[in-house]
Design a protein that fits this description.
Blueprint lengths: L1 H23 L8 H10 L7 H13 L3 H26 L3 E2 L2 E2 L1 H4 L2 H18 L5 H23 L8 H26 L6 H25 L9 H4 L5 H9 L1 H12 L5 H13 L2 H20 L8 H20 L3
C-alpha cells in the first residue's frame, strides 16, 4: 500500500511539473498559439498518465531521486502527447480525451507544429542526463514514427499476421514504455538492470495496445466512438483475429472497406459480429500473456516496492478488460 501511495503522490506533483514545463518553454512568447495547443491536450484531467506511473514505480524500485524521475516522466508524457497530436492529424480525429482535438479546434498546421514543439520540450527535460538518455529518446521517436507509418500502410489489410501486428504495437506503444524503464535504470546508475526494465515496459506497452483494441469493440461507457477501428480500417488485433477465424465476416469487412463510404449502421453491424466472435477471448489471452511476460521480466523486483506497483497495474489491466468484455451489451 505504501508503494502505491507514494506513486500517487508523485503523480500529483507530476501535474504541477508538467504545467511548469509547458509554461516555461519559449512557446510562451508570441505567437502563443503553440503553447495553447500543447496545454489543450496535456493538461486534461482525463489523461491516464500511465507512462509517468511506470517511471515513478521503476524509480522507487531502483532508488532514483524524485527530481530526476520527474524529469524523465515529463519527457515521456510529452513524447506521448506529441504522438497523439500527430495521430489525430493522420486519422483526421475530432475528439480526444473528451474534447476537440488540436486539429479540430485549430487546424492541421497548428497540430503538427505543436506536436513538434512538445518533442523539443521533451528533449530539453533530459539535458541534465547527458547524451545517452537523449539519444535513446530520439531512437524511440524514430521507432514510433516508423510503426505509425507501417500502421497507415496496413490499413484496409486483413492479411496482417499476429507477429506483424505485435511488431507494430511494440514500435508504436511498447518502445516508449520500454524507454521509461530503461531511462530510469540508467539514470539511477543501474545500467545492468536496464534491459530487464526495458523488456518489462515493452510487454506492458503491447498489452496496453491490446486493451485499446478491445476497448474499441466493447467500451460503451467512456463516450468514445465505438468501432472506430473498423470505420477507419485500422489494423486492430481483435478485428484481424475475427476475420481470420470467420471467412464470411472477413468478406463483409472487405466489402465495407472497399466501398466509397462506411455507413455507420454497417460499421456497427460488423462491430457487433466481431464482439460476438471468439476474437475477444483470444485477445484477452494475448493481453494476459504480455502482462505475465512483463511481470517475469521484473525478476526479483516484482516483489519489491515499486515493482509491486507495476505488477498491480498489469493485473488490473487484465481484470479491467475482462470485466468490460463480460459487461458487453
Amino acid at each position: 500500500m505504501y508503494a502505491a501511495a507514494r506513486v500517487e503522490n508523485e503523480l500529483m506533483g507530476f501535474e504541477r511539473r508538467l504545467q511548469d514545463a509547458l509554461d516555461s518553454f519559449p512557446l510562451n512568447r508570441e505567437p502563443r498559439i503553440l503553447q495553447e495547443a500543447a496545454r489543450h491536450l496535456c493538461l486534461l484531467g482525463s489523461a491516464k498518465r500511465v507512462r509517468p506511473r511506470v517511471v515513478f514505480a521503476v524509480a522507487q524500485a531502483l532508488g532514483l531521486a524524485e527530481e530526476h524521475a520527474m524529469e524523465i516522466a515529463v519527457a515521456a508524457e510529452l513524447v506521448h502527447a506529441a504522438s497523439l497530436v500527430h495521430d489525430d492529424v493522420v486519422d483526421q480525429g475530432a475528439m480526444r480525451r473528451g474534447r476537440p482535438t488540436v486539429n479540430a479546434r485549430w487546424n492541421n498546421m497548428v497540430a503538427v507544429l505543436s506536436g513538434d514543439a512538445m518533442l523539443c520540450m521533451a528533449l530539453i527535460q533530459l539535458r541534465s542526463f547527458g547524451r545517452d538518455l537523449t539519444e535513446a529518446a530520439i531512437e524511440v521517436v524514430a521507432d514510433m514514427t516508423r510503426a505509425s507509418m507501417w500502421e497507415v500502410e496496413a490499413r484496409g489489410q486483413l492479411g496482417l499476421s499476429e507477429e506483424q501486428w505485435r511488431a507494430m504495437a511494440e514500435g508504436k506503444t511498447g518502445a516508449l514504455f520500454g524507454w521509461c524503464g530503461w531511462a530510469v535504470a540508467c539514470a539511477a546508475g543501474h545500467s545492468e538492470h536496464a534491459a530487464q526494465f526495458d523488456a518489462c515496459g515493452r510487454h506492458l506497452g503491447v498489452a496496453f495496445q491490446l486493451a485499446d483494441d478491445l476497448r474499441d469493440i466493447f467500451d460503451t461507457r467512456s463516450g468514445k466512438d465505438r468501432f472506430a477501428d473498423i470505420a477507419n480500417q485500422n489494423p486492430s488485433y481483435v478485428v484481424l483475429r475475427a476475420a481470420r477465424e470467420d471467412a464470411a465476416l472477413a468478406g463483409a469487412i472487405a466489402r465495407l472497406w472497399d466501398s466509397e463510404q462506411c455507413p455507420l449502421d454497417e460499421v456497427a453491424s460488423i462491430g457487433h459480429r466481431v464482439a460476438a466472435s471468439d476474437a475477444a477471448r483470444a485477445a484477452s489471452v494475448a493481453l494476459d500473456r504480455e502482462c505475465q511476460a512483463a511481470i517475469a521480466a521484473l525478476g526479483t523486483y516484482a516483489r519489491k516496492p515499486g515493482g509491486t506497483e507495476i505488477v498491480e497495474f498489469a493485473l488490473a489491466l487484465v481484470a479491467g478488460v475482462r470485466a468490460m468484455i463480460e459487461d458487453k451489451p
